Amino acid sequence: MVLGELLALGTVPTIAEIILGFLSIFFISATSLILNDYFDIESDKINAPERPLPAGLVSERDVILLSIVVAMLGFITSYMISLEALLVIILVWAVGFLYNWRLKRAGFIGSSYSKQKVYFLLFFSSGCEIS
C-alpha cells in the first residue's frame, strides 16, 4: 500500500495518508466479510453450525446493523482521504454487496470477482491522496 501511495503521490505518504488508506480498505473488506456471513446463513446452518450467526449467538438484525456501522466507518475514512477515494470505496462496497447477494452463485463471474477485488483494492490504495 505504501509503495502504491508513493507512486501515486510522487512523494513519501504521510502517516495520516497511510493510516486512512489502510482503515478505509480494512472497514470495507470487513463489511464484505460480515455480509458474506449474513447471506450464507442457510449453508452455514449445515456446514458450520457453530458459527455465531447460525448458532443464534447474534441475530440477523445485529449483523445487518454491524455491517452498516462498519461500512459507514469505511466511507468516512475514505472521504477523509478525498471525494474520489469515497466514490471508489462506494463502488468497492457495492460490488462486494452484489457478490455476496448474487454473484458468488454465478459460477465464473463469482470466482473471477474474488480475484479482481484484490487488484482493485491495490489500485485504490495506490491511487488516492489526501486533499
Automatic annotation (TrEMBL):
The keyword Transmembrane applies. Keywords: Membrane, Transferase, Transmembrane, Transmembrane helix. It is an enzyme of class 2 (transferase). It is found in: Membrane. GO terms for molecular function: transferase activity, transferring alkyl or aryl (other than methyl) groups. The keyword Heme does not apply. GO terms for cellular component: membrane. Its EC number is 2.5.1.-. InterPro entries: Prenyltransferase_related, UbiA_prenyltransferase, UbiA_sf. Pfam families: UbiA (PF01040). Gene3D superfamilies: UbiA prenyltransferase. The chain crosses the membrane at residues 6-35, 63-80. It is a multi-pass membrane protein. This is Protoheme IX farnesyltransferase. It comes from bioreactor metagenome.
